[in-house]
Amino acid sequence: MCEMTESERREYESLREIPLESTLIRHGRILDMRLDMVRVPNGNVAGRELVRHLGAVCVVPLTDDGQVILERQYRYVIDSVITEIPAGKLDAADEEPLEAAKRELREETGFHAAEWISLGDFFPAAAYSDEHIRLFLARGLTPGERDLDADELINVFTLPLEDAVAAVMRGEYPDAKTQMGILKAAEYLRRENT
């Protein structure tokens, strides 16, 4: 947990739930599912279904002429082909997010980047998962060979950043990390150029 002000600490203590027991429901390759029993601040006991995840990274790769490198791939869970930014899970809990981002960009798109800028961290589903994602902007791109996993089929394309922002605002990109990445990258660049 990060440094808190006294007011934030009091609020945290007044809202904090105390874990009582935890039961592993399923151990998976990518995540674990647990059922925790907690005591809530009013004294009642409640169950919390939660997903434990190693963490992940995502990348907004930007070419020198302002094109974002995007991907189209089928997502089984929602039975749709959607547009996304390159992303992937950490291979281990102690893997450095920057190294994972470099690996994912190369594997999925073939590109390498000379400049990496962290755009922050986020929890995509804090109500039930501890998945933590680090977002990067990658610039100074050079092409190379892709190295897709055996079960990955990804179509890569480019789009001007301003067109990607417009697509997000029109609701065409339903993926949360893609929306956040494109909008944060655009705002970062706007601030950099003012």
How would you characterize this protein structure?
- This protein has 194 residues and is α+β, with helices and mostly antiparallel strands.
- It has two domains: 48 residues, no CATH class; 137 residues, Nucleoside Triphosphate Pyrophosphohydrolase (Alpha-Beta Complex), CATH 3.90.79.10.
- 25% of the residues lie in helices and 40% in strands.
- It is built from four helices and ten strands.
- The strands form three sheets. It has a four-stranded mixed sheet with strand order 7-4-9-8, with helices on both faces.
- A hairpin with a 3-residue loop joins β1 and β2.
- The chain is globular and about 55 Å long.
- It starts with 5 loop residues before the first helix and ends with a helix.
- The model has no long low-confidence stretch (mean pLDDT 95).
